[in-house]
Amino acid sequence: MALQATTYKVHLGLSDVDRGIYESVRMTVARHPSETEQRMTARILAYGLWYQERLAFGRGLSDVDEPALWHKSLDDRIEHWIEVGQPDAERLTWCSRRAERVSLLLYGNPRVWANKVLPAVAGLRNLNIAVLPQEALDALAIDLPRTIDWGVMITDGVLYISDADMQHELPLKWLQGER
């Protein structure tokens, strides 16, 4: 019998000062059985970072032909393809051919990944790559409750996440492009 996805109820009080977006977003997020808490947390943070009205979670780990998140036009063109983690250069090139814009929220050991992958994707003009600080991501992702209620403020390229009793500061480092 296959393992089932674990569902999380998420509320984001989003204040993106940099883009002038102020929204209260409620959603249900499915965590694939093989997905780590860090990856799911990175997907939620990517949702807040690149929030748009029609931004949606893709099937990601369940379907390699879909991203972690995407924004489609009304005529079903992929306007923004968003990956999280450490995809290889071949995957990023493949994604860049399918969407007008591709963004990656990188976490883990960025130095090893960047030395291997960045030279191969440097020519992709529609690719933006941001790095999450690993320690802050780990602190945010540990023991996630099934109901997540975060205040997310983005200003000057820094994500400030507040939950019931903690504040987390996640300064983004951009390796390529910008938000």
TrEMBL record:
Xref: InterPro entries: Restrct_endonuc-II-like, YaeQ, YaeQ_sf
Record's signal peptide: none
Residues in coiled coil: none
Descriptive protein name: YaeQ family protein
Origin species: marine sediment metagenome
